[in-house]
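Progress against Task 2.4 (sequence-to-structure conversion) is shown through the following example record, which the project officer requested during the mid-term review.
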Amino acid sequence: MLAVNLFKIASWVCFNTPRRLSYRVATVAGEIYYWVAREHSRKADRNMQIVLGEPKINRRVRLVARRSFRNYAKYMVDFLRQSHPQAAKLPGFVGQGSWQYFDDILAKGKGAVLFMPHFGNWDGAIGLVSTYGDYNLHSVANDFKPPELNQLIQSSRERLGIKIYSSEGALRGLYTALKKNELVVLLVDSPLKSEGVIVELFGKPVRLAQGPAALALKTGAGLMMGYIVRQPGNDTYYAAWEKPLEYELTGNKERDIEIISQQIANNIEMLIRRHPDQWYMFRPLWLTPEESEKYYYNKANPHPRKVVAKEESVAQGD
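Structure tokens generated for the chain above:
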């Protein structure tokens, strides 16, 4: 029960501490963690080097990576604050854009898949959707250990108005939700070792979960990216939703999943370029040089491949 009690204490402290003071502490904690946890910070540096297009890890790369650690620590303050039973449902917002896209998608009656990277405050983005209309939201999240801690964390997310599925066995629930014209929310940039589809992100091959594309392809659901950006001063966020994806299908399932997933990657890249220090990726994401070489060889020398849909690769969560 140690982890459970520590989570409750952290939630109580963040809830009862003035937000600005909490952010100051989080900024210092994020900075310290960057310098202490060198394994994570080196991975973040390498990721940020690709994002910024720098030939090597330099001062600029490290500065943006450090800001990312600081912003992630502030996101954790928000998450712990929202996890308190007496907390308000959402943080403050200075603007909300493009809600008409929701109405346009749901008017078709086939549901919508909202995708987003580990960016800004994704829990807040999900909560905001639930307050806009009478929507039923569904998502997938990795299980935490012990089970008591998992229950505590996921119940705090369910308070935001979203049904959480475990990574295993989520497929049927997500399909059913879309058939009912409901909303599915998925994080799409979790690093994958084997499952998934390979696309290009910032000009380099990366393996992303095929879940959003596979769900849209099978059900006809709309696809749209949402996000929340922390504004200067830390007290408020700006929430926005991008225009639903448009694409032409070829009739080849594997190729269509690649086409849709590449469009998803393009949207993610556009968002990260705008605010690289609000993207939280502290693990290796891109393919290794050996994997990249094999990918480009196979791309230049195509051959028929059998597509095997794996339920665990349909959706990844955190």
